[in-house]
Design goal:
It is built from 24 helices and no strands. It is an all-alpha fold. Helix 21 packs antiparallel against helix 22. The termini are far apart.
C-alpha cells in the first residue's frame, strides 16, 4: 500500500509540476512582441475564438488565461468584448488534456520527455528554449497521469474502492459536491477530470456519479475563481465575474439534465455518451468536453449584454477609466479630417488628470499618484500611436501640418505630465507645509486656466494664460531666499522644497509652451 501511495504521490507531483511549468514557460513568451501579436490575432470574433481554444489547450488553465487577459484589457491592448470571446473559447481548449488522458500514450510520452530533456540538458536550440521547456512540461503532465493510473490499477476490487462505489450508488448526487470540492482545492478542471478518469479506469462502474462529479467541476471552478480574484478591482474583476457566472450556469444546467435523465429515463446526456463511447473513461472525457462547450456557449450567448452588465457589477477604477481611449478608435482613421479634434479631446483628459495629482496631495482622491500616472502614460502612448498612424495616411498637406503640430503638443503634454507628477510626489510628504501648499494652489490655479483656454479656445483666455506663464524667475528667487531663512535648520525639508520650486518653474515654462501652441493652432482654425 505504501508503494502505491508513493507512486500516486509522485505521479501527482509530476502532474502539477508540469502544469506549473506550462504556465511559467508561457509567461516567458508573453513579452511585448507576443502581446502585440495577440492583439492583432484577435481582430475578429472568429480569430479571437480560435486563439482562445489554442490558449486553453496550451495553458490547460482558464485561470492563467483570465489573468493574462485581465492585464491586456487593463492596459488597453485588448477590448473587453474581444477578451470575453477569447476567455469563453479557452474553456474548450482545456478539454484537450482530458480527451488525450483517456487514450494510452505511454510510449509517445516517454519519447517526448526524453527528446525535450536531452535538448535542454545539452543547451541545444537556445532560441526555442521556452517552447522546448513547455513541451517537456506537457510530457511531465501526461507522465504523472500515467503513474497515477499505475497506482490505481492494483486497487481494482479493493474493499476501500468498493465501499466508495457503494456510497455513490446510494447517494449518486453527492458526487456533484465531490467534484465541486476537488476543483476548489486543486485549481485545475482538466487535472480533476484526469484524476477522475484514472480512478474509473480501475474497473468501477459508477457512470452517473462520475458524470455528476464532472458537472460539479464547473461550480468548483466558479468558487475557486471567486476567491482567486477577490482582490481584483474594476476591469480585471469584470473578466473574472464573466468566467464565474459562465462556469456556474453551465455546471448547474448539466447537473440538472443528468438528474432529469435519471429520474425520467429520458435519453439525454448519459445515453448520448454511452452511444459515442463504450468505455467509461471515454464517457467522462466527453462529459468534460460537453461541460466546457456549454461554458463557452453560455459565455458567447451573453456577449451582447455582458459589457454593460459587468460595468455595473464591477465599475472600472478611475485609473483604469483614464487609460482607455474614449474618442480614438481605429475606425476614426477612416475620416482623418475630424481626428485632430478627437485627439484634442483625449489630450484634455490628460490635462484634467494633472489637477487630480494635486487633489491626491490634498487627500481628495482615493487613488495613488503612481497608478494614476501609469494610466495617463498608457493613454499618452495610445495618442502617440494614433498620431503616428494618422501621419502615414494619405491626407491633405494642411491637415498633415496640423497633425505634426499635435505631435509636438503631445510631447509637451508628456513632459508636463511627468513634471506635475514629480511635483505632486515631492509635496505629498509636506502636505501641511505652508510654502508647499502655496506652490500647489498656485499651480492648480494656472492648470485651471490652461484647461479653460484649451476647452474654449478663446483668444482672450489664451492671451491671459500666456501672460500668467511669463517669466517669474525673480519672484521664485525671492521665495527661495525666504524659504532658506524660515527652514535654516531643516536641511532635508529645504532640499525637498527647493526641488519643488524648480519643478514648479519647469511646469510653468511647459504651460507657456502649451499656451503658445494653442495661440497658433487657434489662429490656424479660426
Amino acid at each position: 500500500m505504501v508503494k502505491l501511495i508513493a507512486l500516486y504521490t509522485a505521479g501527482l507531483s509530476f502532474f502539477f509540476t508540469g502544469i506549473a511549468g506550462i504556465s511559467d514557460n508561457l509567461r516567458q513568451l508573453s513579452g511585448q512582441r507576443f502581446r502585440n501579436l495577440l492583439t492583432r490575432t484577435t481582430s475578429g470574433q472568429v480569430r479571437a475564438g480560435l486563439l482562445g481554444i489554442v490558449a486553453g489547450a496550451v495553458t490547460q488553465s482558464t485561470s492563467v488565461v483570465t489573468f493574462i487577459l485581465s492585464g491586456m484589457v487593463s492596459s488597453g491592448l485588448l477590448p473587453l468584448s474581444r477578451a470575453l470571446v477569447v476567455l469563453s473559447c479557452a474553456n474548450i481548449g482545456t478539454a484537450a488534456l482530458v480527451l488525450v488522458a483517456a487514450v494510452d500514450l505511454h510510449l509517445p510520452i516517454l519519447m517526448l520527455i526524453g527528446i525535450c530533456g536531452t535538448i535542454l540538458a545539452f543547451k541545444l536550440l537556445g532560441r526555442w528554449k521556452p517552447w522546448i521547456a513547455g513541451l517537456l512540461s506537457i510530457g511531465l503532465v501526461f507522465f504523472g497521469l500515467d503513474m497515477m493510473k499505475q497506482a490505481f490499477s492494483p486497487l481494482a476490487g479493493s474493499h476501500g474502492l468498493m465501499t466508495a462505489a457503494r456510497f455513490f450508488d446510494r447517494w449518486p448526487d453527492a458526487a456533484f459536491v465531490v467534484g465541486l470540492l476537488m476543483r476548489s482545492v486543486i485549481h485545475s478542471s482538466a487535472g480533476c477530470a484526469a484524476i477522475i478518469i484514472t480512478v474509473e479506469k480501475v474497473g468501477l462502474r459508477t457512470e452517473f456519479p462520475a458524470l455528476m462529479a464532472i458537472a460539479g467541476l464547473g461550480l468548483g471552478a466558479a468558487v475557486a475563481m471567486h476567491f482567486l480574484t477577490s482582490t481584483l478591482r474594476g476591469i480585471p474583476r469584470q473578466i473574472a465575474w464573466y468566467q464565474i457566472f459562465s462556469n456556474a450556469i453551465a455546471a448547474i444546467l448539466l447537473g440538472a439534465l443528468l438528474l432529469i435523465e435519471r429520474e425520467s429515463s429520458l435519453p439525454l446526456l448519459q445515453a448520448a455518451f454511452t452511444k459515442l463511447s463504450p468505455t467509461l473513461p471515454g464517457q467522462i472525457a466527453l462529459m468534460f468536453l460537453t461541460l466546457n462547450l456549454t461554458i463557452a456557449a453560455v459565455g458567447i450567448a451573453g456577449l451582447k449584454w455582458a459589457p454593460k452588465w459587468l460595468a455595473k457589477i464591477s465599475p472600472a477604477t478611475p485609473e483604469q477609466s483614464l487609460s482607455q481611449p474614449m474618442y480614438l478608435q481605429p475606425e476614426a482613421l477612416r475620416s482623418p479630417e475630424a481626428t485632430p479634434e478627437l485627439v484634442a479631446l483625449e489630450q484634455m483628459r490628460i490635462m484634467l488628470a494633472l489637477r487630480r495629482y494635486l487633489d491626491i496631495v490634498r487627500g481628495r482622491e482615493s487613488v495613488t499618484l503612481k497608478s494614476l500616472h501609469d494610466a495617463a502614460g498608457v493613454l499618452e502612448g495610445e495618442i502617440t500611436s494614433f498620431l503616428a498612424a494618422l501621419v502615414k495616411q494619405p491626407i491633405a498637406t494642411d491637415l498633415a501640418a496640423r497633425v505634426i503640430s499635435f505631435q509636438h503638443k503631445e510631447e509637451t503634454l508628456r513632459a508636463l505630465d511627468e513634471n506635475v507628477f514629480l511635483f505632486a510626489e515631492t509635496l505629498q510628504h509636506y502636505a501641511g507645509n505652508e510654502l508647499a501648499m502655496t506652490l500647489l494652489e498656485a499651480l492648480d490655479t494656472i492648470l485651471l486656466m490652461a484647461n479653460d483656454a484649451l476647452t474654449t479656445r478663446d483668444f482672450v483666455r489664451i492671451d491671459l494664460l500666456v501672460r500668467v506663464t511669463d517669466d517669474r524667475g525673480s519672484m521664485m528667487e525671492e521665495m527661495r531666499d525666504r524659504m532658506y531663512a524660515d527652514y535654516a535648520e531643516k536641511t532635508k525639508e529645504i532640499a525637498a522644497l527647493h526641488y519643488a520650486t524648480r519643478l514648479f518653474e519647469r511646469n510653468i515654462w511647459l504651460l507657456r509652451q502649451l499656451a503658445l501652441w494653442l495661440r497658433v493652432d487657434a489662429r490656424m482654425t479660426a
